[in-house]
Every structure is written in structure tokens, then in C-alpha cells.
């Protein structure tokens, strides 16, 4: 409104993005019967941008969740660095573990005896990875601590019990207190050669790491018992180190070299899982590029919608020019229209994307019940739930990219509108 209270006039629009320009732009945005088709195109542009932004937010959040969850699960039981002896047997594992624990940035150093074995009951059998660990270390493992679903780890070192994963327990049909038989090919030495070793153990505890692959393969037993079972008297096979910052492995290795003089082969999580996590990042980047096409298509809809609006409003534009509106004012009117569609679509997509990402697993469970389906089966995707972590930096980038595309898509139609010759336009009406 001008100072007199009348409607804004082109003279009021001397400055950029004045109330007059906003008034004309918002009037053109309103759906009227004569402009029905143009409004439909604008509506599709809005829906395309909204769905594109929402989909990008949800997909990037799911990929972030996958990366974080898998990293936590894998490193929760496997450690970040792996120390193995060379030249001499690993009988000084206790000293190496103590020195490694004293290295700055190390949370935990766990000596282990590892070996493949077969496990069986009268209800089923499976191949497993047996790990011999001390009770104090087992109770502090990030993947095990707080994840024991039944039984207890107290007194683990004193008994001949084992801790197994929940999915393995289901496969074998056992619960706490039941017996399982472990079989290893290289057992006792006899006059006729090496005989297989089979021994029954009581299930002392059942844990659930939350990653089906691990819950179905790991069996933990007391370290001393594992040394006997695998013929590793007084030896360990590996010391696994858990660090505060997994991204600073080079610094950890330099500190470890100074702290432990013994010859060791040291590998870390980057070497063991590099291909896996690189594949996840590539998938995320490809999905981002593909889904960005949705936003680009919506931006092209803005171009077509504004082009048709310019053609439909040729006479109105000519009249505005004759009343004193500058070419810049006309250009800004149509920029406002295109940017408004982008802003409204991006805002709606932002809210919809956040709503879905924050409640993704709840939505999955509801869809499973509604359609009697099994979306995101744990045996295929390794995780027991659908994770999503919203990274506000990525969300900001998505929204900014969408707004930039909307403004860029508006430039050509706005320039065409500003370039109209009012005399020629009125002559042909």
C-alpha cells in the first residue's frame, strides 16, 4: 500500500522487489478459471519439488543411518585395530594388551583366541566363529555390553558356558541352560593322526547385537577354555583394540609402534571393511544424483508454466509497461512467481522429509502389518530395524540446491516477459 492507502502502483515499485511487484506476482499465482491450465502446471511443479526434496532427505538420512549403524555394529564386536604376532608365538598377549590399553585414545584392548567351529543340537546345526575372551573384556565389548537378552555374564570365566547370538539360539532351538555341542576338526593328537574334537557346553547367555549376520555366527567362551579347545596353550591369536576416534588410525598406529616394541602385524578397520563402506558411499552418491533429477524435472515444469503464463499475460504486461513499470520490475515479478513455487515446494518437502525420516521404522512396521509384507528383512540387510539419521548440513544443501534451481528456471521466462515490446503486444490484441 502507498502512503495514501491506495493500491500500490508501478511508481511505488521504483525499488527492487517493492510491494507492487509482490502484489502482481501473488495475483498471478492465484488460480483463476481462465488460467486453469497454467495453475495445473504450477501445481505439478510444486508437487515435483516437494516430492523431490522429501525423497532426497529421506534417502540421504537412510544412507547415513546405514553407515552409522553398520559402523557401530561391525566395530562394536570386531574392534578398530587388530594386532597379531609374528616371528614368535603370541604368549605375551597379556603384556601387549596392557601396553595397548595405555596408548592415548584407546578405550579397550581385548586378547582373543579365535577359531571356526561347527555347533549343533538335536534341533539344528550351523557353522560359527568361536571367540575366547576374558569375562571382564566380554562385559565391556561395545556390541555385547547392555545387549544380553537372557542369562548373565557374571562368573563367565569360572564356568564352561558359552554366550551365543539370539538368531543362532533360534536356529538351534536352545535357551539359557541348554546344551550345545561344538566341533573342531583339529583336536587331540592320536597315534592315528589328529582327531576331531567335540565338546558340549551350557548356554550361559544369549545376546542380540542387532546385526543378524553377527547374531547368527558369534559364540563367546572363556579365554582359558578356548585355549584348550583350539590347542592354543597360553597363546592368543589376536589383540583387538577399540579407539575413541576411528578416523585417526594412522595416529594410533604411530603411538602403538612406540608403546609396543614386539614385532606385530597391525591391520585396522579401513583395510578390512574399506570396500564395504566405499560401496555404501558410492550408492549414496548415485542415489542422490538420480533423485536430484526429480527436482530438475520440476524445475523444467516451472519454465513451461511461467512461459505459458507470460504468453497468457502478454496484454497485462504491456499495460503495466505503459503505466510506467520498468523491464526490471516485470522481470522481478516473474522471478518472484518461480521462486515462490520453489520456496513453497522446498518448505513442504523439507517438512514432509523430516516427518518421514524421523518415523521411518514406525512407518515400515505399519506397512508390514497393513499389507502383511516383510519390508526390509533383517536376513538380507543385516540390521534388525530401518535406521535414519538426518544430517542438517545435507538437508540445508538439498534445500539450497532446490531454491537455486527454481530461481534459475525462472530467469528465462522472466527475461522473455521483460523483453516484450508493449506497443507490439497491444497492437496484436
Helix/sheet category: alpha+beta
| Helical content class | 40-55%
Quickly count the helices: 15
**% residues in beta strands:** 15-25%
- As a whole number of angstroms, the C-alpha radius of gyration is 33 Å
Major beta sheet summary: 6 strands, mixed, barrel
Number of domains: 2
Provide the low-confidence segments as ranges. none
Shape: elongated
Average pLDDT confidence is 83
Distance between termini?
31 Å
Question: What does it look like?
Answer:
With 429 residues, the chain is of the alpha+beta class. It has 15 helices and twelve strands. The strands form two sheets. The protein has a six-stranded mixed beta barrel. A two-stranded antiparallel ribbon has the order 7-8. β2 and β3 form a beta hairpin. α1 crosses α11. The longest helix is centred in the last third of the chain and has 44 residues. The chain starts with 18 loop residues before the first helix and ends with a helix.
Short description:
This protein is an alpha+beta fold and about 425 residues long.
Describe the secondary structure blueprint for this structure.
Elements: H1 19-29, H2 36-78, E1 81-85, H3 93-101, E2 106-120, E3 125-133, H4 135-138, E4 148-151, E5 161-165, H5 166-172, E6 179-184, E7 189-190, E8 193-194, E9 197-207, H6 212-215, E10 218-222, H7 223-229, E11 238-243, H8 249-259, E12 264-268, H9 269-312, H10 314-322, H11 327-358, H12 360-371, H13 378-381, H14 392-418, H15 422-427
Parallel strand pairs: 3-10, 5-9
Antiparallel strand pairs: 1-11, 1-12, 2-3, 2-6, 2-11, 4-9, 5-10, 6-9, 7-8
